[in-house]
Amino acid sequence: MLEPRPLLGAQVTELADGVFVAMSLNHAVADGTTFWHLFNTWSEIHRSGGRGCELSTPPPVLGRWFPDACPVPVTLPFMKVEDIIQRVEFPPVRECFFHLSTASVRNLKAKANAEMTGTAQPQADPISSLQAVLAHLWRGACQARRLPPDRETICLLRPVGCRGRVQGVPQHYMGSAVTLGVAKCTVAHVVDKGLGCTAWLLNQAVASFDEAKTRDALASWHQKPHILWPGFGSDYLEASGDGDPTDIVVAASPRFDVYGNDFGRGTPVAVRSGAGNKMDGVVTVYPGRDGGGSMGVEVCMSQEALARLTAFMEVVDMA
């Protein structure tokens, strides 16, 4: 018999010159869109005193959404905690938070699109600011890790949202409504083909989203329920034969309103991710504190590789 465990935790720490507000929400029940909707709503209710609060955003849609062919409730074949929770030991990593100014982001986007102008590559939409920034980071990571040119490398985009892409999923759906986008190629392709070509791979990973395949995958999941474990050896994050990671995994989004919350002491001066799943290659993206299209990028990597990546990233004129 499984014991009940909390899906949400919050902690407020009073500092000498401020307050640190932390919240954790299990990804099995909510994604980043829901997380920040909840966090900002919490701050708005707190700021109003909790009585007669008229929220500035629509309330979350609490109704569960399932494909028509999915029987509800779904029977899960998990009898022990170990069947659904694993404590994975990751090699030690260092963290670095890069601040990309509005001008830096704009220049990367312009460069990526200029390089793809006139090429024969099909392109449904122009390369976005995020795709250009991630392409620059992916190229830098391959060089910083000193990977062999013929090695395959993957950029996994975890937050490809289903809201607005899958019919029936409300815009303010409270749940986990994301799927994966995968771009893969050789290290030589990423390093030698230029920023535009690498960004185009990410562009196509998002453009290739298929609503029918997503519905089919969801509809068949109940037949063989499974859990994705974080860590090396999984289908989406691999390691090379000598133990050095080759991939990057992108989490969060610059579209999340991470600086809009105010608990009565002003808006945040900084945002950071928690201690969970800190493995080599994890990249967490936030909007920049200064707004205007700036971005903040949190990167986990080995100490040696991160030092080389920092030098590479400096050439885009960090703010």
TrEMBL record:
What Gene3D superfamilies does UniProt report for this protein, alphabetically? Chloramphenicol acetyltransferase-like domain (3.30.559.10)
User: Mind listing the UniProt keywords for this protein, alphabetically?
Assistant: Transferase
Q: Which InterPro entries match?
A: CAT-like_dom_sf, Sec_Metabolite_Acyltrans
One matching Pfam family, short form? Transferase
One GO molecular function term?
acyltransferase activity, transferring groups other than amino-acyl groups
The protein depicted here goes by the name HXXXD-type acyl-transferase family protein
Q: Which residues cross the membrane?
A: none
Species name: Miscanthus lutarioriparius
